[in-house]
Amino acid sequence: MNYTLHQLQIFLKISQTKSVTKAAEELHLTQPAVSIQLKNFQDQFEIPLTELVGRKIYITDFGKEIAEAAENIINQVYAINYKTSAFNGQLAGRLKFSVVSTGKYVMPFFLSDFIKQHPGVDLIMDVTNKGSVVGSLENNEVDFALVSIVPGALNVEQLDLLQNKLYLVGKDDVAIEEGESTKKVFEKISLIFREKGSGTGQTMKDFIDTNKIPVAKKLELTSNEALKQALLAGMGYSIMPLIGIKNELQNGELRIIPIEGLPIKTMWSLIWPKGKKHSPVAAAYLNYLLEEKDKIVHEKFNWYEKN
Q1: Domain 163-266 - what CATH class?
Q2: What is the pLDDT, as a whole number, of residue 29?
Q3: Whole-angstrom distance, CA of residue 127 vs CA of residue 120
Q4: What is the pLDDT of residues 209-248, one digit of tens each?
Q5: Under-70 pLDDT residues of the chain
Q6: Dist. CA 71–CA 141, nearest whole Å
């Protein structure tokens, strides 16, 4: 057998995501490249590692055992790298995050300089919905999570990073008469929602419920990017975070609709279980944020703070 570490990493990611497409996305590779490496890896075994039923891939029992072995091998390789870096006096290890989907417009700016300063640190960041983020915290699978609404059911500590502002947004202006109520304005438009479990979707629902706004027809989408594309296509309007639509606003592709009661303001917060014992890397990152977060906000989000 002559399989490579790269092939082990690809097969492990496929076994975790149950999808070649998702594995390619998370590994920042093309789908054909992942498919080729999967075939080359499988060809070295007489027993199938995967089964394709329709368009869905399944990991066989033998494949699951190989995936477990692959994970152990990869972890040992990481351990060798970390120990080598530590021996050379470098900070080394993994830093794992779970980030709500819109947080992908926020978190990288609070990470980039730290990662550049510490090349021995490996970053793993899962961008998902709020429900999965909460699950990763409950299972102690990550060092930190980024949320826009701190889950009340969890006993966590938090560090506030940046204010989150949500506006009513659409492709076209809405004719608003002087003194017209928020309820009347919403009667003129079609609303597009995020899926259940989304923090943005919950914030929008709370606003609608509080203001007793009737919703006759709605479209529900499962990602912030899909929602933005629907808005750009003129399919309707939505309440969404300002942080994710900078370019569209500057290009005039989307517009903020001025509504009484908006923007809604929450806070992007980094959270972790109360009493969690941080790894040296996680502790170093937390200290870095305490010292640098105000500077990062001023330098990277100056446009945002003015709105």
Answers
A1: alpha beta
A2: 87
A3: 22
A4: 888 888 766 788 877 788 899 999 999 899 989 988 988 9
A5: 81-90, 177-179, 216-217, 305-307
A6: 15
Nearest to 154 by CA among 283, 32, 21, 273: 273
Residues 62, 64, 68, 74, Cα dihedral to 10°: 100
- Are the beta carbons of 220 and 123 closer than 8 angstroms? no
| Domain boundaries along the sequence of the chain | 5-86, 96-145+272-305, 163-266
Strands 121-128 and 93-100: parallel
Q: Which amino acid is at 144?
A: F
| CA separation for the pair 65, 284 (Å, rounded) | 35
Location of structure tokens 């995020």: 194
Q: How many CB atoms lie within 10 A of CB 174?
A: 16
Q: Whole-model pTM?
A: 0.69
Is 204 exposed, middle or buried (CB count within 10 Å of its CB: 0-12, 13-18, 19+)? buried
CA distance 217 to 98: 33
Which CATH number is associated with domain 5-86? 1.10.10.10
Which residues have CB under 8 Å from 206's CB, separation 6+? Answer: none
Rounded to whole angstroms, how far apart are CA atoms 67 and 69?
A: 5
Chain Cα centroid distance, residue 108: 10
282 within 8 A of 271, measured Cβ to Cβ: no
